[in-house]
């Protein structure tokens, strides 16, 4: 099954596999791709997700033709004046240009979306999700899906493309469990606090803890359970 059609949970803890040039990294000229795997590739939507291990590279990123979300899994990347270390994330908006430096063995999860071109003015600056400010109360899962009492949920948006198809933020919840429900969008999740167990369509349960991440493709009917409060960075892509 191609990466664009996968409807199973994708676990970032699995090692990258040897691979060729990945579309999600085509914006970084000169980057040496040691190993990698394509997780999602939907060129018709200008959207891609990949996991990659890089060779040492120092150079300049020209103005980006897409929004790029980076999750550093190992090593560190310096983008402009920002150094992003393992377990940290950053958003490079479309139009960003600047210096880039990474050591050999740096591992990334990259999620990119073309979006709309920025307006005239100063070039967009990198955006780090705000991990410390209080989250704002938000709606939770449908009551029809819950198998526990309703949780208290909250979130804070960090980045939203003008198309409203690409959103990045921080979300938190008190404990709850829900029945399997098909996701209406692709969602990358990186846990900051707590733990969650995701049960996939085959009945395989995977527990993720702080510092671990995964991707749930659109259409995947996963069950969810967190027995302790949880907080995550999320990146959502929705088709038009």
Can you characterise this structure?
The structure is a single chain. Helix content is 0%, strand content 50%. The protein is built from no helices and 20 strands. A hairpin with a 4-residue loop joins strand 2 (33-42) and strand 3. With 240 residues, the protein is an all-beta fold. The chain has a 7-stranded antiparallel β-sheet with strand order 1-18-15-20-13-12-11, with no helix packed on it. InterPro entries: RmlC-like_jellyroll (IPR014710), RmlC_Cupin_sf (IPR011051), UGlyAH_Cupin_dom (IPR008579). Residues 163-234 form the (S)-ureidoglycine aminohydrolase cupin domain. It comes from Teichococcus deserti.
Cα distance, first to last residue? Answer: 23 Å
- CATH fold type of the largest domain: Jelly Rolls
Q: Taking Cα atoms only, what radius of gyration do you get, to the nearest Å?
A: 17 Å
Strand arrangement, largest sheet?
A: 1-18-15-20-13-12-11
* Shape, principal axes of CA atoms: globular
Protein name: (S)-ureidoglycine aminohydrolase cupin domain-containing protein
Domain (S)-ureidoglycine aminohydrolase cupin: 163-234
Organism: Teichococcus deserti
